[in-house]
Design brief:
There is one protein chain. The protein has 4 helices and 6 strands, in the order H-H-E-E-H-E-E-E-E-H. The chain is of the alpha+beta class. It has a 6-stranded mixed sheet with strand order 2-1-6-5-4-3. The chain is globular and about 35 Å long.
């Protein structure tokens, strides 16, 4: 695991891996937006419901691989495993962080994975 993560991202991963939805949403601001699989999840209540469903359905576990700091955006590449076809898969987590809270999160397949399955941009 990548060891030099900002505290908020470390807290996010820990809460996700422990399937602790209260600790998970504590990482976000009230009106945060998460985009996953092309869908927007708006606000803390919807994010909590989505996270609880994800934890129950797939038992997701994140393992940080690398972090790229792009000023307001932090790009975390993580190996994501769980009860889903193709597990594990590398995903890019695009965090927008303000005042040590996540304001926006976009989760995408890594470009390397897309190339592997023949999808090019």
């Amino acid at each position: 695991m990548y060891t030099k993560l900002p505290k908020i991202i470390d807290d996010f991963i820990k809460a996700s891996n422990e399937h602790n939805s209260d600790a998970y949403i504590a990482c976000f601001i009230e009106n945060a937006v998460v985009q996953d699989e092309g869908k927007d999840i708006n606000g803390i209540k919807a994010i909590k419901e989505w996270n609880e469903w994800l934890s129950k359905e797939y038992k997701v576990k994140l393992d940080a691989i690398k972090l790229v700091d792009r000023n307001e955006e932090k790009l975390l590449t993580a190996s994501v495993s769980g009860d889903f076809e193709g597990s594990p898969v590398n995903l890019d987590y695009h965090f927008t962080i303000s005042n040590d809270k996540i304001t926006a999160l976009k989760i995408l397949l890594t470009p390397a994975f897309l190339a592997k399955v023949g999808i090019f941009f």
